[in-house]
């Protein structure tokens, strides 16, 4: 992958007049954060017992640690979006799974088993049924093995799956994980 073209393209967008009207660009202003030192990437990999995908690792150390990118931009390593702010994350924090575990999906996933229906609303156990369903449905185990990369708005995230067959990484797009809205994989 040729990274010099990325820097040139982003610089062209940043200095363009008039500024391109691209969704989310006002958030990052077509600016990249400085690249990460190798020692910081190594520390991250050791902490989480993983090897980052080679292309993503090179991007972090040669191009930038987040900033300009699709939609609202790329996250810094170890950050994710929480509403309108970037925040640090930890494994199993309710959003990010366990990075050293395998990514659990090989196809689109939207298992609605056990989802309460409108017919259940008058049931005395409705709230408990909803709670049980949401705890299962939104479990961070469904994103094990994936590193948060970016946010495209409305809780739609892009993740780097680090254990794609053949040793390559794969971009996974998880739209809002709400019942009736299926997850999509690219």
| Helix and strand pattern | HHHHEEHEEEE
SS field, number of helical segments: 5
Proportion of residues in β-strands: 5-15%
The assigned CATH architecture is 3-Layer(aba) Sandwich
Unreliably modeled segments: 175-186
List the domain count as a whole number: 1
Mean pLDDT: 78
Number of strands: 6
Assign the structural class, choosing from mainly alpha, mainly beta, alpha/beta, alpha+beta, or little secondary structure.
Answer: alpha+beta
Q: Outline, from the CA principal axes?
A: globular
CATH topology, which one? SMI1/KNR4-like
User: How would a textbook summarize the main sheet?
Assistant: 4 strands, antiparallel
Structure in words:
With 186 residues, the protein is α+β, with helices and mostly antiparallel strands. The protein has one domain: SMI1/KNR4-like (3-Layer(aba) Sandwich), CATH 3.40.1580. Helix content is 26%, strand content 14%. It has helices at residues 4-15, 25-28, 38-48, 54-63, 126-137, and strands at residues 79-82, 85-88, 146-151, 157-161, 170-174, 184-185. The strands form 2 sheets. Strands 3-4-5-6 form a 4-stranded antiparallel beta sheet, with no helix packed on it. It has a two-stranded antiparallel sheet with strand order 1-2. The two termini are 19 Å apart.
List the helices and strands and how they pair.
Layout: H1 4-15, H2 25-28, H3 38-48, H4 54-63, E1 79-82, E2 85-88, H5 126-137, E3 146-151, E4 157-161, E5 170-174, E6 184-185
Antiparallel strand pairs: 1-2, 3-4, 4-5, 5-6
């Amino acid at each position: 992958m040729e990274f010099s073209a990325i820097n040139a393209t982003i610089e062209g967008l940043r200095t363009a007049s008039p500024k391109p009207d691209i969704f989310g660009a006002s958030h990052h202003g077509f600016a990249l954060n400085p690249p990460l030192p190798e020692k910081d990437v190594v520390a991250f990999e050791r902490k989480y017992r993983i090897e980052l995908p080679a292309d993503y690792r090179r991007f972090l150390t040669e191009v930038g640690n987040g900033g300009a990118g699709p939609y609202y931009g790329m996250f810094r390593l170890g950050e994710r979006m929480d509403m309108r702010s970037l925040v640090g994350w930890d494994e199993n924090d309710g959003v990010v799974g366990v990075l050293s575990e395998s990514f659990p999906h090989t196809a689109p996933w939207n298992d609605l088993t056990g989802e309460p229906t409108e017919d259940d609303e008058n049931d005395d156990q409705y709230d408990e049924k909803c709670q049980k369903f949401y705890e299962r449905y939104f479990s961070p185990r469904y994103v094990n093995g994936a590193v948060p990369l970016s946010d495209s708005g409305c809780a739609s995230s892009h993740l780097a799956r680090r254990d794609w067959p053949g040793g390559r990484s794969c971009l996974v797009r998880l739209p809002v994980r709400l019942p009736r809205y299926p997850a999509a994989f690219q």
